[in-house]
Amino acid sequence: MGAYDDLLGYDRDTQALAQVAGRLAWDQETVMPRGAAAQRAEETGAMEAVLHARRTDPRVGDWLTAAKAPDAAGDAQLREIRRAHDRARKVPADLATALARLTSRAQGIWAEARAADDFAGFAPTLGEVVRLRREEAAALAEGGDLYDALLDDYEPGATAAELAAIFDEMRPGLVALRKRALEAPAPEPVRGTFPAGAQLDLARDLAARFGYDTARGRLDIAVHPFSSGSGDDVRITTRTATDDPFNCIYSTIHETGHATYEQGVDPAFRLTALGRGASMGVHESQSRICENQLGRSRAFCHWLYAELRARFGDIGVADEEAFYAAVNRVHRGYIRTEADEVQYNLHIMLRFDLERALIAGDLEVGDLEAAWNDRFEADFGYPVDRPANGVLQDVHWSVGLFGYFPTYALGNVYAGCLYRALRREVPDLDDHLLRGDPEPATVWLRKNVHRFGARDLPRDLITRACGEEPSAGPLLTYLEEKFGALYPG
Amino acid sequence: MGAYDDLLGYDRDTQALAQVAGRLAWDQETVMPRGAAAQRAEETGAMEAVLHARRTDPRVGDWLTAAKAPDAAGDAQLREIRRAHDRARKVPADLATALARLTSRAQGIWAEARAADDFAGFAPTLGEVVRLRREEAAALAEGGDLYDALLDDYEPGATAAELAAIFDEMRPGLVALRKRALEAPAPEPVRGTFPAGAQLDLARDLAARFGYDTARGRLDIAVHPFSSGSGDDVRITTRTATDDPFNCIYSTIHETGHATYEQGVDPAFRLTALGRGASMGVHESQSRICENQLGRSRAFCHWLYAELRARFGDIGVADEEAFYAAVNRVHRGYIRTEADEVQYNLHIMLRFDLERALIAGDLEVGDLEAAWNDRFEADFGYPVDRPANGVLQDVHWSVGLFGYFPTYALGNVYAGCLYRALRREVPDLDDHLLRGDPEPATVWLRKNVHRFGARDLPRDLITRACGEEPSAGPLLTYLEEKFGALYPG
Fold first, then answer.
1. B17 vs A46: CB contact, 8 Å cut-off?
2. How many angstroms separate the CA atoms of A210 and A341, rounded?
3. Do residues A6 and A148 both lie within one domain?
4. Any chain B CB within 8 A of the CB of A232?
5. Which of its termini does chain A have fewer beta carbons within 10 Å around, N or C?
6. How close is the nearest chain B Cα to the Cα of A110, in Å?
């Protein structure tokens, strides 16, 4: 065997072990006994050490130097294996260990600070996280931009400048749309009794409709819904609130979008570096197009309205139009994860700008809360009432996730682009959505996005699927048309 | 740090990874999507390769040579780490791989042969398994007895000759007891409706009564009940049959016996080579004493009879005496896993003698079916009707488990010895069992068995707990008293 085959054989075991680590994380969030947390931390640490040792193994470097890829997919394999190898090698072991320890501890400190509404209690720890992540970014960037080095983990090839240009184009339009919607009379909400078991039945039905293969996955309950795993074992989770069916419905469709992406990757890539989604941004585009452009469409809401009444009886809205308005209600709120389509991206842009400034050293952690509050009021039109509803609301920074937030909004931008192309290429899509059948869309996504796995860089993948470079235009047009009609002002 | 600390630090990660591998096996038997089997085989294989590489790491040998243990527990740590290291090193990698591949394949061939009642269809594969296991035994034994080398994996320090002496002492008494019981009128069975959900509620209650800490474990459904994990994450499974509550009840108590053993190990041993049960035999003694000596006792049946009637209404037996007789019914049957206390050990002795002959080369696989049938009829008094009820009934040999079967009967022998000591030291035990409370027994077991983990060799552990060397006498006396009263002849 040549170096290429040796490398791929070695990497296959690494990928398999990464799947095991992922399964362990699934277990922790769904079924792990609560008393097992401390022991589990050691087990997870041991798995991470194994993966790190494999990724930094000097033989991988030697194989990468000597390997000749047999084809374009082979080139992509080498690119992705090299990415993981370089990343793991560049960060000094001491720093990686210090970061792992700190972020594990910081998450608890953040949770306490949030419960106590006390940003000052978290600030010193966050300062330390920022300091170590900047140190790590410097090791990764090798003289380049620190933030871009972090971003590259989640969105290979993207730069902050490119994202900023997209976001800056969107922001005024979103602020204006937000303003108009919040000045209009609020749509009536859904009211009724939605037993948890019946919601889960509906969730399973929805997952199947959106293309989820339950023979290669399963649906469970988790506090924070997520999707996990690749290939033939891709699991999703959801949650239920008995007074609000939308939480379960749209969490499920969202996670199904992630999961069908993983399930739709070419089986030839299974347990290789290409056997997963291309990036966090592309992943989010798949969850968001299912949840929003398809799941919250007027056509799908026609079917969903009848389905909810059939399953739950009266749901407290006058008619289908009122239901569609309730599904797409734009509402005041501080929390990103509860935000509607219009305001969600404003939440992200706020975080993106603040975390770039933190990593660049242009903003001190001590000034972060004030910066958050100023920006929130400017974009949302009302002040933050308390830190738990503001700077302390997200876990991300406490666990060191800098460079991750923008992929959420980028996913929405990609979803906008893909949706325009999908509408063009599947002109009768609404006829299917009216019957609760998004299959033509999921088939199109599988053909144009899913099957390629991580073969292409995200931007190239989206460009080929859409027939044009990704830009803010399609998403903005979609939002202005949809919410312009809902809130004619 | 010295070599001892280096070694223990390294071994801690190995133990943590072994727990991860165990969790993966739990996942496979309880929640894994059915379409994930092929991918899972690769994931499991990658984990096994990691564990094998760690156990054979030359540094472990160097550390073992240089290490000075600080105390007696440290000596035991070195003994157990050395056992795993030696075992892994002695078996050539090619042979280990060939065995793993063969037994993975053989399990499927066995299942097909069993379904088709076709021993000839399985015999060539079984012959190959025996051949490779003999080769492995030769590598492990280094000139010693082949069977003892295999047995040592499951029951450190035990020899086939020693077990044979114990079993040969028991066999005539068991055959006589079996004969007398089967000639007597059969007790009436339990009859009623036992919904699965209500059985699971009872199962959770029983597990708690027998000392299971659900904060450090969980109960799920599996086709073949098992217990898995060590330390703070010890999970049990059970199953339900709606016409037979005993399946769920005694599976649950049995697995709880295993699980409380793991949960009761001294926390100082967690994630070390001593942080688990001492052997398969000692493990089985803990499950069996809970299931049989305690769970099927007259006193506990007093409570259980009332409890079942309270939970399920009429259960079709006349009174408490009839219930106790039903619980302890000795019945004709071919299947080991369905056997009663009297006949179970006869099943094991049959397998023990046949597998010793196979490994010694005194019996050919081609003659195995006839040998099985002859021995069965001699000990049980009626002929085997078909291979699925005879030589094809157990999965063990197909997956290469030779030397494992006798630990089941040895567990019963140990349970007999422990029960005699327990009765002596907790004279008012029945007062508690009458109220459905086995706590004095589980406390005694924790104090005398559980907490020591794998610190002592099994024989030494049982001897200290019982105040005498293990022997067949106590079990035989217990069975003769109990079943002599139930079947006075």
1. yes
2. 20
3. no
4. yes
5. N
6. 25
Compute the nearest-CA separation of B278 from chain A (Å).
21
Let me know whether B269 and B404 are in one domain: yes
Which position among B255, B262, B284, B341 bears the catalytic label?
B255
Say if the Cβ atoms of B23 and A27 lie within 8 Å: yes
Residues A82 and A181 in one domain: no
Residues 48-77 of A with CB under 8 A from B: 49-50
Per-residue pLDDT tens digits for A173-227:
999 999 999 999 989 999 999 999 999 999 999 999 999 999 999 999 999 999 9
The structure tokens 């170590």 sit at A132
DSSP B270-329: TTSTTSS-S-HHHHHHHHHIIIIIITTSHHHHHHHHHHHHHHHS--S-SSHHHHHHHHT-
Residue A100 in any domain: the answer is no
Across B185-198, b (16+ Cβ under 10 Å) vs e yields eebebbebebeeeb
Residue A457 and residue A464: Cα distance in Å, rounded?
11
Give the integer Cα–Cα distance in Å for A207 and A226. 13
Does the CB of B233 have a partner CB in chain A at under 8 Å? yes
d(CA B325, CA A391): 68
- Cα dihedral sign, A88-A94-A99-A104: positive
Query: Smallest CA–CA separation between A386 and chain B, in Å?
Result: 35
Q: Could you tell me which chain A residue has the CA closest to the CA of B14?
A: A46
CATH of the domain at B365: 1.10.1370.30
Q: Do A233 and B33 touch (CB under 8 A)?
A: yes
Confidence of residue B1 (pLDDT cuts 50, 70, 90): low
* Contacts with B34 from chain A: Cβ below 8 Å: 215
Tell whether pTM > 0.80: yes
CB A50 within 8 A of CB A24: no
Phi first, then psi, for residue A238 (nearest 5°) are -145, -175
Cβ within 8 Å of B, A 114-173: none
- In A246-275, the residues whose Cβ lies within 8 Å of chain B are 270-271
Check residue A1 and give its pLDDT: 66
Considering the domain architecture, whether residues B7 and B116 belong to the same structural domain is answered as: yes
**Does A299 share its domain with A382?**
yes
Inside any domain, residue A137: no
Strands in B235-238's sheet, in edge-to-edge order, are B219-221, B235-238, B227-228
What ipTM describes this predicted complex? Answer: 0.93
Q: Which residue of A has its CA nearest to B215?
A: A35
For A51, name the nearest residue in chain B, comparing CA atoms only: B50
Tally of domains within chain B: 2
3-state secondary structure of A93: helix
Task: Tell me which of B143, B158, B183 is where a domain ends.
Answer: B143
Q: What is the mean pLDDT of residues A223-245?
A: 96
pLDDT of residue A325: 97
Test B231 with A32 for CB contact under 8 angstroms. no
